[in-house]
Write a structure and sequence with these properties.
Number of strands: 13
Order of helices and strands: EEEHEHEHHEEHEEEEHHEEHHHH
Number of domains: 1
Radius of gyration: 18 Å
CATH superfamily: Spore Coat Polysaccharide Biosynthesis Protein SpsA, Chain A
Shape: globular
CATH topology: Spore Coat Polysaccharide Biosynthesis Protein SpsA, Chain A
Largest sheet: 7 strands, mixed
CATH class: Alpha Beta
Structural class: alpha/beta
Helix content: 25-40%
Strand order of the largest sheet: 5-4-1-6-11-8-12
């Protein structure tokens, strides 16, 4: 069972410069909420209450303004700083004291997931006892992503990072579930040409031990990488369309916590006072 999750919210956000020169990308507004709310909501939907957020050195106070450790969400938030981006598996080295002897989930702070049956799939992945599970999703341009080849039992047989001739269109998304061996395996990784330790190398170690399983968002599922300005605003438009059509909010953290019975009416009222007069507060009022 996985009870701990990590959000990797550091990075330089160079593809979105100059927007990211003054503000971390994960704090920029994705439609009506900070981008950070969306990966956090995924961990909460999975039932994970202990969450570590890794941020760039010097930006901690910005994150704590919107998501303080003492929050109204019924979750335990911890923060850690990184000096410089060193590759995704660095999250498990930085977070070793947080993870301790537990299994752990990792989600990238700039990834957006949406799907009708997503919550059930997340809860199922949280039951992981050993090995690793990752989400795959078909894309039109697999050359830009890590790509997986899968057998009939959903075991991953091949992995390639940005292959020139992809064997499939199944891209590796930014959501991962690992057993506790991820810490020791990450420490053994050697830096790539980019001078970073690579997530694909970590996944290959699990694959070679036949401990890597694939999960899928499904045909109606959505995975968006908000790494560029165009991708960011495409995701924002998608969220706007869905919310206006359905009258429901995507990634309303208080609503998820309320449904999970982690908080009650009192905490919702505190959140309304925290946000002030705004559309988000009006939605919270409708919940109670």
């Amino acid at each position: 069972m996985i009870n701990k999750g990590i959000i990797l919210a550091g990075g330089l956000g160079t593809r979105m410069s100059p927007l990211t020169k003054a503000v971390n990308k994960q704090l920029l507004p994705l439609y009506d909420k900070p981008l950070l709310y969306y990966p956090l909501s995924i961990l909460m939907l999975a039932g994970i209450k202990e969450i570590l957020i890794i941020v760039n050195r010097g930006q901690l106070h910005q994150f704590k303004k919107i998501l303080p450790e003492k929050n109204n969400l019924g979750i335990k938030l911890t923060y850690a700083e990184q000096n410089r981006p060193g590759g995704l598996p660095q999250a498990f080295i930085i977070g070793e004291k947080f993870i301790k002897k537990d299994n752990v989930a990792l989600i990238l702070g700039d990834n957006f997931f949406y799907g009708q049956n997503l919550t059930n799939k997340l809860i199922e992945c949280r039951k992981l006892k050993n090995g690793a599970r990752i989400f795959l999703h078909p894309v039109n341009n697999p050359k830009l992503y890590g790509v997986a080849v899968v057998d009939k039992k959903d075991k991953i047989t091949e992995l390639a990072e940005k292959p020139k001739k992809p064997k499939t269109n199944l891209a590796v998304t930014g959501l991962y579930f690992f057993d506790n061996k991820v810490i020791s395996l990450s420490k053994k990784l050697k830096p790539s040409k980019r001078k970073e330790i690579e997530i694909i190398d970590l996944l290959i170690k699990y694959k070679n031990n036949k401990k890597l399983k694939a999960d899928y968002l499904g045909r109606g599922g959505v995975w968006l990488d908000t790494g560029s300005v165009d991708d960011f605003y495409n995701a924002s438009d998608f969220i706007s369309t869905i919310e206006k059509r359905q009258g429901l909010k995507i990634a309303c953290l208080e609503e998820i916590a309320l449904k999970n019975k982690w908080i009650g009416k009192k905490e919702i009222i505190k959140s309304i006072k925290f946000y002030g007069k705004c559309e988000y507060s009006n939605y919270l009022i409708s919940l109670i």
